Amino acid sequence: MNFHTEADMIADKMAKLWLLATFLLICVVIIASLIIWTRRDKGQNIIISSPAIEKFQGNIYIGGAVNNPGLYPLKNTDNLASLILASGGADFDADMSGVRLYVPSLQETNQPQKIDINRAEAWLLEALPDIGQTKAQAIINHRQQNGPFHSIEEITQVQGISNSTFEKLKELITVSE
After folding, report:
1. Structural domains of the chain ordered from first start
2. Can you give the pTM of this predicted structure?
């Protein structure tokens, strides 16, 4: 005994129609999306690249409360700490809160850097003309044994440094107390 009323049959037909309409709507959306996707402008591939890093070559002046103030070569990999180390490190009483960097412009003339023979390490002394590893160590030994140089002329008291060597050095060295 099937007691379906006419209202139940109409409701059943309506439910089937809604189900069919929903299915058709989903099919239309999928087909439209596929058509749009295949007809889209593919354009050119996007290439992502980082800009090339310019290599900086130049000098930077390091002065103030450092052991060997002067011009030092600046490389891309340098940071503040490496620059201070290149200048022989900061003095014990240096106020590091007031650190300033100065990069000279191309129009400025580069003065020769004077190396403080009372503070310079061996590697820096070796950069001077006619001063190799042996003479650099002799300068360090002399100042350790006899105290600091009081004038640049006293460097001739170091074994192996003649007056002709001093003539090549005198514009490049200085002394501090």
Report:
1. 51-108 (no CATH), 114-177 (1.10.150.320)
2. 0.44
